Amino acid sequence: FVSTDIDNFWIAYENIISTKDSIKRYNYLKELYFDKGTKGLKSLIDVRNYTEKEFIDGITKYPKFWNSLKSNTLKVKTLYPKIDADIQKLKRAYPELKPASIYFAIGAFRTGGTYQNDRVLIGSELSLADKNTLIDELPAWRQPFYQTQNPIKELPLLCTHEYIHTQQKELVENLISMCLFEGVAEFISCKV
């Protein structure tokens, strides 16, 4: 488990919101978050093709959201035992399980979880939200996710699902392959 990107995000966040100077904001994002980022953060940015502008816009437009989410992100380590217990169940069901690292980072609202190679990548701005997360600033189309889900409660299942993807062969880009790829990960993660 690696969550240092969350700590770095909050340092960058505080600096970014402390100024209206857009050049300083971008420099803080780069120097305090991206440059200090783990392999997991770099993979998350790569897989989702995040831009600096998406991060800056997300950070500056939703202050109530970020303030309500912060405590959940800072206590992510307390969730490790439950996630690990589910991964151990997966290992018992599939003894040839290859190791993978689970990275927690803050993204730009386009994934709760994904993977790259042997890395599980958790978008904590989605996956660590709960019923107390303030969402009224978010665009109307984004709010139903937070209203109908309680993502933090589903985190162990999400991590197991994404962990399974690290074990699968590379996805072929056609509908039936994509259905099987996701369906197998969902079925096995729910089963264990």
Provide an overview of this structure:
With 192 residues, the chain is mainly alpha-helical. Helices cover 58% and strands 7% of the residues. It has a three-stranded mixed β-sheet, sandwiched between helices. The longest helix has 17 residues, at 175-191.
pLDDT average, as an integer? Answer: 96
The helix-strand sequence is HHHHHHEEEHHHH
In the predicted model, the low-confidence regions spanning at least 5 consecutive residues are none
Helix content: 55-70%
Radius of gyration, CA atoms, in whole angstroms = 17 Å
Distance between the termini: 20 Å
Order of neighbouring strands in the sheet with most strands: 1-3-2
Characterize this entry briefly.
By secondary structure, this protein is mainly alpha-helical. Helix content is 58%, strand content 7%. Strands 1-3-2 form a three-stranded mixed β-sheet, with helices on both faces.
How is the topology of this model organized?
Blueprint: H1 4-17, H2 22-34, H3 39-48, H4 52-61, H5 63-74, H6 80-93, E1 101-105, E2 113-116, E3 119-123, H7 124-127, H8 143-148, H9 155-165, H10 175-191
Parallel strand pairs: 1-3
Antiparallel strand pairs: 2-3
Helix pairs in contact: 1-2, 2-4, 6-9, 9-10
Structure characteristics:
mainly alpha; 3-stranded mixed beta sheet; 10 helices; globular
